[in-house]
Q: What sequence folds into this?
């Protein structure tokens, strides 16, 4: 992908999500924690090199994400700006299981390959799409969604969020790895304890 196109894409996505910013508005030019002397801040404070070199997926994984958020060990200058970004690589068959972002809308842009995505609204309607290079898909804040690479080649996607720390709630891990009582699961899913045990097993190892 040509660099000028990538730059235009990043700028466009940033402009799109800033209009939906969900973080509290800053009353200063930018955030600096109370223990930092603002006169010592340099351009490094606004710079992240996380995406340099692309993404290498760890052995045994099929999906890997690099994130730039307002967390202290990431890019704290994003705090209060209502924006954060990520880059995800999906190997063939790689799946980002159903999850939500409680504090931010997600805008996904496909840089390489073809990616199948889906989201479910509050009426339980499922929306699915197969995205190609250059396509953009919006996942509204708080709605359950997923991505899966059903093709034979890797997929790389660039993601913007309308929050400097959108959070992620993974439904499988939250439901079956958080210690919710088995009785609740049996009633909710209308299954017996053996099924519940099987679903919990990967998260209790």
A:
């Amino acid at each position: 992908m040509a660099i000028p196109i990538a730059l235009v894409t990043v700028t466009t996505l940033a402009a799109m999500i800033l209009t939906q910013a969900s973080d509290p508005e800053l009353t200063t030019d930018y955030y600096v924690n109370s223990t930092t002397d603002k006169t010592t801040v340099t351009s490094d404070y606004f710079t992240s090199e996380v995406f340099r070199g692309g993404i290498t997926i760890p052995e045994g994984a099929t999906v890997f994400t690099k994130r730039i958020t307002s967390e202290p060990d990431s890019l704290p200058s994003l705090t209060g700006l209502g924006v954060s970004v990520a880059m995800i690589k999906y190997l063939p068959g790689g799946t980002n299981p159903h999850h939500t972002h409680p504090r931010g809308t997600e805008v996904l842009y496909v840089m390489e390959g073809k990616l199948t995505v889906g989201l479910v609204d509050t009426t339980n309607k499922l929306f699915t799409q197969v995205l190609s290079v250059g396509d953009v898909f919006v996942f509204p804040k708080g709605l359950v969604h997923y991505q899966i690479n059903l093709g034979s080649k890797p997929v790389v996607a660039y993601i913007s969020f309308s929050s400097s720390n959108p959070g992620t709630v993974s439904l499988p891990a939250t439901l079956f790895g958080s210690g919710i009582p088995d009785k609740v699961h049996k009633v909710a899913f209308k299954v017996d304890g053996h099924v519940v045990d099987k679903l919990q097993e990967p998260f209790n190892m």
